[in-house]
Design brief:
It contains 14 helices and 15 strands. The protein is α/β, with parallel strands linked by helices and about 400 residues long.
């Protein structure tokens, strides 16, 4: 490989929440963290070089982007997903969660119903409730180690609650599903019928495992594009979360104007200067790095699969189709939620994301972030084995 993903990079003492804030979050300070969804890998060297050059210039004034920025983003989605975007559709925000919250406030009223599919990325719940909207849950069905959509419940919940907006997570975090064309179209047709706006969080689209394909929801039918806000970002792909850049595409002019108006109400203007630079360079020059990263993550997943089979067969891997987040089923240990947390934290000395963080449907599960050197992953699973066997 041209890139050394085996390198152990010391992150303690850098004020990163993954390693430096255990005590502040009520955890012991000696845990090995595999929780929050950032990677323990350096971003591509071309991005680092561009950021160093900008830093050496020494002026960090108000900045905006010109056509080369849009071209870099446009080319990425055209080449890798067959998605033809237009510059006028793009609205930049300092992150996807910011964009989802903006859509909720700009396109719905207090008390309106918003639908999600739990267990799902927990900020979805937070931004719905904190904006005084009604949360409606279409829980995913977990059968034989795989998650499916309950379409009958999906439509019933939309109809009976007069749902105004649906937050779609694709690829799904944390369960790792990459929704098929048939699944996406069926959800889209129901949303069209009931005039539901779709906010499609596609931030993990660049991490898809062999045998699966990410489909941009808004491309499947022209009518879908007309009801959809598609949220994208380079942050997960290139480990740039702290630089706070998201590119959201809204082809419907009325939705786009409402979205922009709500951003205006926040008083937020230009994005982070260095984030804009990093985004453009990553999309222009980062693909070789991403290709090797995907191969490395596949190797990490293979290790987990083989380790569980040989050493911890009572733990079930929910086979991921996408993302670098692995969802493990601990139900066969027969532990209560409190006992499972004690096992993970006090005995295995691991900091993971407990399943209930993603909704009560996550009880008995834990989410592992596998975007780390293999040696780190091996240490974590051996600690887990000793805790269970002990």
């Amino acid at each position: 490989m041209a890139y050394n993903f085996d390198e152990i990079i010391e992150r303690k003492g850098t004020n990163c929440i993954k390693y430096d804030f255990a005590c502040e979050r009520g955890k012991p300070d000696d845990l090995l963290p595999l929780w929050v969804a950032d990677m323990d890998f350096r971003t591509p060297p071309e991005v680092i070089d561009a950021l160093v050059a900008a830093s050496q210039h020494g002026i960090f004034g108000y900045s905006e982007v010109k056509k080369p920025y849009f071209k870099a983003v446009h080319n990425w989605y055209q080449e890798h997903f067959g998605w033809q975007t237009e510059e006028g559709w793009m609205v930049k925000t300092p992150g996807v969660v910011f964009a989802i919250s903006t859509a909720i406030r700009g396109l719905t009223e207090p008390g309106d119903s918003i639908l999600i599919q739990r267990p799902v990325y927990y900020p979805f719940t937070e931004v719905i409730l904190s904006n005084d909207r009604k949360l409606v849950n279409n829980p995913l069905i977990y059968t034989d180690g795989k998650y499916q959509i309950d379409f009958e419940d999906f439509e019933t919940k939309i109809r009976e609650n007069n749902v105004k907006l649906f937050v779609l997570c694709n690829p799904h975090n944390p369960v790792g599903r990459v929704w098929t064309k048939e699944e996406l179209i069926r959800m889209g047709e129901i949303c069209l019928h009931y005039q539901v706006t779709v906010v499609s969080d596609e931030i993990h689209a660049d991490f898809i495992y062999p045998g699966h394909q990410h489909l941009v929801f808004s491309t499947l039918r022209p009518e879908f594009a007309d009801i959809t806000i598609t949220c994208t970002a380079p942050s997960k792909t290139f480990n740039l979360a702290g630089l706070q850049v998201s590119n959201n595409f809204i082809s419907n002019g009325e939705l786009r104007r409402a979205f922009r108006r709500e951003i205006g109400r926040t008083g937020y203007g230009q994005l982070n200067t260095l984030g804009l630079i990093a985004c453009q360079v990553a999309y222009e020059k980062g693909y070789p790095w991403l290709q090797e990263l995907r191969e490395y993550l596949n190797g990490n997943l293979t290790f987990i699969r083989e380790f569980l089979k040989a050493e911890l067969p009572e733990i079930t891997l929910v086979e991921p189709e996408g993302t670098y987040l692995v969802w493990l089923d601990f139900h066969n240990l027969g532990l209560s939620e409190k006992e499972l947390e004690q096992l993970i934290v006090n005995k295995a000395k691991l900091w993971l994301d407990e399943g209930t963080m993603f909704g009560p449907e996550g009880e008995g599960f834990q989410r592992f972030n596998i975007a780390c050197p293999k040696a780190t992953l091996e240490t974590a699973f051996h600690q887990l084995k000793r805790a269970i066997r002990g």
